[in-house]
Known about the structure:
Layout (H helix, E strand, L loop, with lengths): L2 E3 L5 H4 L10 H21 L3 H5 L9 H11 L2 E5 L6 H10 L17 E5 L4 H10 L5 E7 L5 H18 L7 E5 L6 H8 L2 E4 L13 H9 L4 H14 L9 H16 L3 E6 L7 H13 L7 E4 L10 H6 L4 E10 L24 H18 L4 E8 L2 H22 L10 H13 L1
The structure holds 5-phosphoarabinonic acid.
Amino acid sequence: MLRVDFTNIMSSSVSDQHGIAEADAADLASKTTKAHAVFSRWRESKDAIFFDMVSDSQIAAGIMEEAHRTSEDFENVVVLGIGGSALGLRCAAQALLLPFWNLRDDKARSHRPRLFVMDNIDPDSFSALLAELDIKRTRFVVISKSGKTTETAAQFFIVLEKLRKAVGGSWQKNMAIITDPKDGDLRPFANKEGVVSFPIHPKLGGRYSVLSAVGLFPAACVGIDIGGLLSGAKAMAKRCGEPDMERNIAYRIGGYHHHLERTKGKSISVMMPYSDGLSVASEWYAQLWAESLGKGGLGQTPVKALGTTDQHSQVQLYMDGPNDKVFTFLRVESFRSGARDTTVGSPSDHFGYLKGKGLGEILNAEQEATAGALAQAKRPNITVSFPTLDAHHLGEFFMLYEISTAFAGALYGINPFDQPGVELGKKLTREILSKG
Ligand code: PA5
């Protein structure tokens, strides 16, 4: 079970001016009651369908069978998608696949495909990838909820042409499509051409979709334990059903961030995992937090960092710069590799304190030290601990932050499920491209 340590966000650690104080409790409690009612209505209207869908025992139906076929027939899976259609999967792959997955040989990958998530349209990367892969042995998974996203559409048309050339009349088996059941251009295309497809619930927004076919199908293709992801998410949804903030860790996270931003000037939320496996978790979080809450002049700017790397890059600012941030550390108590090959044996006298210490122990000591140092400098922070980095705990994490974000949206009084601010840029892109 994930553990969240709130000690360093409380005023007893970082002062009344910068932390959550006794005096804030009444205000938080009354706002929580109202926000919980809003969140409950969102569950009923299915706007917050991410919360209940993980309890649907049918959610993985069909996915496993097709994923099994994919891993038997293909040596590469290439995902075409962007934003919420890519980040959750990238996070799961980074956390749960063996490190350097694509560099490992077939046996080390347990005969599963390599995975490439193409969530940008840089021509150098895209052409290099297509040139490197054996297209015939590649399955392209096209993911777009709306079926209207320029970047994914451009990738799709390029790939379609290449597939038709390389594979001929049976190119359909090299593709899978994940999109809305009715809307957009991809659905009629999938139906007409007989391409395998999975629906995304019409009310499920991209950044809340990692535990739908969007994240689960490609994850299952490379052997990620999707049952574990779902069981973790379900356990967290159950754990965070309580209306009382004190008994609901998701409400505490969302509520404390909102409160510190609104009343104590913490306009920035830094997430800093101390684990390479969790390095994309902060990217996933940044999108969720920014796109859900940045509305109507409100919101809190998310920043991604990585421990210990960014101790040597950003922590000077965090300790000594403006006190306008709230920090979230992620840590892993027990690393998969244990202390195998990564224990310091015979250091010089100067580094005697490292003798017998594994890299995981050093990493976690540095996380504890950074959190403690920030608290001493009156910088509020919380620590989320993963007992181990596995599918169940990652599923818990996804659900924890989806609930926290939606709850913060209820506190801000905004709709955390839409993204009206990105429309104008899309329209202007279409106009610019239509001229040329
Ligand atoms: O979270 C969101 O809704 C967005 O980030 C979308 O996922 C992103 O814009 C891609 O949209 P689509 O899946 O419709 O191609």
